Amino acid sequence: MIRVGARVRAFKPGDEVYARPDKDRIGTFAEFISVHEDDLAPKPERLTMEEAASVPLVGLTAWQALIELAHRRSPRPRARRTPPWSSASARTS
Question: Considering Cα of 34, then 67, then 46, then 54, what sign does the dihedral take?
Fold first, then answer.
């Protein structure tokens, strides 16, 4: 984290974070990107930056395989059908 906006409360400069930016913010191939704080999560200390960078895509892929393709339901009756870091919509069928 290099800088934060005036209204950002969850992070500060110097924090190590990982993200799956919203579909309208596909700039993750750039060296720097501006994202909403809701798209970020603190990087677990035990993970390298490279490992943490892979987590959102791996998680989204697993979610899609189980929920969308295999038509599995979430184990909790009122759980969200999309991961909080995902902008992808799960199918409702």
Answer: negative
Q: DSSP string spanning 16-52?
A: -EEE---GGG--TTSS-----GGGEEEPPTTS-HHHH
Say what the pTM is. 0.61
**What are 18's strand-pairing partners?**
41
DSSP 59: H
Per-residue pLDDT of 33-44, as tens digits, reads: 888 888 889 999
- What six digits make up the tokens of 43? 């990087």
Handedness of CA 83, 89, 73, 56 (dihedral sign): negative
Q: What angle do CA 8, 37, 34 make, to 5 degrees?
A: 100
Least confident of 51-55, 67-71, 78-82: 78-82
pLDDT of residue 12: 95
User: What is the rounded radius of gyration, in angstroms, for the C-alpha atoms of the chain?
Assistant: 15
